[in-house]
Design brief:
single chain; alpha+beta; NinB fold; two-stranded antiparallel sheet; 4 helices; 4 strands; 11% strand; globular; NinB_sf
Length: 142
C-alpha cells in the first residue's frame, strides 16, 4: 500500500512556506513515523490563493473564535462540515466517507465557501469584515 500526503505549500520570497506547518508535521509523523521520506512537489492547480487563506484564518475564523471561544482550528472543522460536501471513496469492497479540504477548492469555490460562512455568521449577528475592509494580509494563521 502506497502512503501519500497531499499538502499545499509554496515558495515565497525564496523560502519554502507550509501553511499549518504543525498540522503537516503531525500528519506526516502519524502516517510515516520518524524516518526519512521522499518529498515530491508539483505546480498547484488554480486553487485558493495564499491571500484568500490568510483572510480565512486571520479574519473569518478569528472573528468567529472571538465571538464564542472556539479555536480557529475548531471553526475550520465546523465550517468544512457545514458548508462543504464530504465524498465517498471506494477501496475494494469498502466505502469510506472523506472530509472535504479547502486546499483543493478553486478560487471561485473558495470565495463561495467564505461567503457562505459570512452569511451564516450574519444570521447570528456576527459581522465578518470583507477582505477590503481590514488589513488581513499580515494576520496570522495556524
Amino acid at each position: 500500500m502506497v502512503k501519500r500526503v497531499d499538502w499545499f505549500a509554496g515558495i515565497r520570497e525564496g523560502k519554502f512556506v507550509v501553511p499549518d506547518r504543525d498540522g503537516f508535521l503531525r500528519t506526516v509523523l502519524e502516517m510515516f513515523g520518524d524516518k526519512d521520506q521522499s518529498l515530491s512537489l508539483s505546480v498547484a492547480k488554480n486553487t485558493r490563493s495564499g491571500a484568500q487563506n490568510k483572510y480565512l484564518w486571520g479574519v473569518v475564523y478569528r472573528v468567529l473564535s472571538d465571538w464564542n471561544g472556539n479555536t480557529p482550528e475548531e471553526w475550520h472543522q465546523i465550517c468544512k462540515q457545514k458548508f462543504l460536501q464530504s465524498y465517498m471513496l471506494q477501496v475494494g469492497e469498502e466505502e469510506f466517507e472523506l472530509e472535504p479540504s479547502t486546499t483543493k477548492l478553486s478560487k471561485d469555490e473558495f470565495n463561495e465557501y467564505v461567503e457562505s460562512i459570512r452569511r451564516w455568521a450574519a444570521g447570528h449577528e456576527v459581522v465578518i469584515p470583507e477582505p477590503g475592509q481590514v488589513d488581513w494580509v499580515n494576520s496570522s494563521q495556524p
